[in-house]
């Protein structure tokens, strides 16, 4: 048994690579740009450790469903208002991380950031650096060597807070074999799947000749007037000047001006394992689960004009973390079944569309301008006006406008 048995179920976390003491495994991008393990047979000793360290095996066999001994779901918004604007929804992650670093002087927090032209996980130990991890990045974040670094911190009794997709959290537990985790706290995000870093890199070519010219990429933006709406907005910051803002939205009136976002919103470009995700259910892998509160209409008197988050406390470690930080949130109990009805990754994974078979072949073969022509909406007077109306008008006026143009 070795890691190649996992095949397309591989989530690309790299637990196998770092578990192999013979350095026989490296993660390499496939044609689509997703990372998969390659084994050097001259170094492999057939010990099966890579297989046993894979979350897709370990999570099912060892971790299983034992972790969710409790489950407390809440609808939540941070009281630390300075963080709210930059976060995807209720600024839960950054508020908990802030209080975590404040309480434990030698602690580290791990999460996804954009730098050096790519999205990857980093470790931060200063409250002032937490802004780097804020905001959802809709792409597979590369974990680099954060698992072994976290292991070293835990060995030195340093508390660690890890945030990531559920498969990345499961990968960390699998890499650690669930040992020496007394000081480890994990937050898994509700995740409907990730496209490839290679496609994002190609897409960014539409805005800058070289990715290194881009200092930040943001995927969400709070509505300037109606804060209850957290817009799906791709903002590229070039050399510290906001230069491109392209709108894309979930509804049928979406202005899908960017091909990467347009295809992401349709779910055509996700990693193959995302279509058979082991973690798209209510048995959560992290101590705390965070996501957007999609059932907020059920709570009309709870912050009706702001985007709020779902928080699910899943374990005893989660309770401890929440008890120390809950005073920094406004929150009410949440009906998790009703949330799962509208927030799909809480009950099932994204269905693989037939277009998935050929889309990456096309993305590889054609220049990005041609992909844009095929899969993004054209920038016409009509789409620009619609985008403006969607973003700046109250919903009642938008509805009237939609009826008019139809
Ligand atoms: C690819 C993806 C798909 C998502 N799909 C859904 C969904 O279907 N339903 C839903 O309710 N919520 C989804 N989310 C989560 C949601 O967008 C917010 O991240 C969540 O509500 C937390 O918001 P916040 O304001 O508390 O955190 P923020 O302050 O915005 O912090 C974001 C947190 O997410 C982590 N993160 C950001 N990007 C990535 C990434 N690419 N990989 C791993 N970790 C990352 C950061 O490390 C940080 O911990 C998704 C997020 C991602 C990245």
Secondary structure topology:
Elements lengths: L14 H5 L5 E5 L5 E5 L9 H4 L2 H9 L8 E7 L2 H4 L7 H12 L4 E8 L2 E7 L21 H10 L4 E5 L1 H11 L7 E6 L7 H8 L9 E9 L7 E9 L2 E7 L11 H8 L21 E5 L16 E5 L2 H10 L3 E5 L2 H7 L13 H10 L2 H8 L5 H12 L2 H11 L1
Parallel strand pairs: 4-6, 6-7, 7-11
Antiparallel strand pairs: 1-2, 3-12, 3-13, 4-5, 8-9, 9-10, 11-12
Helix pairs in contact: 3-7, 5-10, 9-13
The structure holds flavin-adenine dinucleotide.
Attribute tags:
3-stranded antiparallel beta sheet; Aspartate Aminotransferase, domain 2; 406 residues; Alpha-Beta Plaits; alpha+beta; 4Fe4S_Fe_S_CS; 13 strands; binds flavin-adenine dinucleotide; Coenzyme F420 hydrogenase/dehydrogenase, beta subunit C-terminal domain
Q: Could you walk me through the main structural features you see in this protein, from its secondary elements to its overall organization?
A:
This protein has 406 residues and is of the alpha+beta class. Among the domains are: 3-53, Alpha-Beta Plaits (2-Layer Sandwich); 72-191 and 277-342, Aspartate Aminotransferase, domain 2 (3-Layer(aba) Sandwich), CATH 3.40.640. Helices cover 32% and strands 20% of the residues. It contains 15 helices and 13 strands. The protein has helices at residues 15-19, 49-52, 55-63, 81-84, 92-103, 146-155, 166-176, 197-204, 259-266, 316-325, 336-342, 356-365, 368-375, 381-392, 395-405; strands spanning 25-29, 35-39, 72-78, 108-115, 118-124, 160-164, 184-189, 214-222, 230-238, 241-247, 288-292, 309-313, 329-333. The strands form three sheets. It has an eight-stranded mixed β-sheet, with helices on both faces. It has a three-stranded antiparallel β-sheet with strand order 8-9-10, with no helix packed on it. α3 (55-63) packs across α7, α5 (92-103) packs across α10 (316-325) and α9 (259-266) packs across α13 (368-375). It is globular and about 70 Å long. Flavin-adenine dinucleotide (FAD) binds next to α5, β4, β6 and β11. Flavin-adenine dinucleotide binds at residues 87-94, 111-112, 119, 133-139, 141, 163-165, 189-192, 194, 290-292, 294, 309, 343, 345. It comes from Parabacteroides segnis. Residues 2-30, 35-63 form the 4Fe-4S ferredoxin-type domain. InterPro entries: 4Fe4S_Fe-S-bd (IPR017896), 4Fe4S_Fe_S_CS (IPR017900), FrhB_FdhB_C (IPR007525), Polyferredoxin-like_ET (IPR052977).
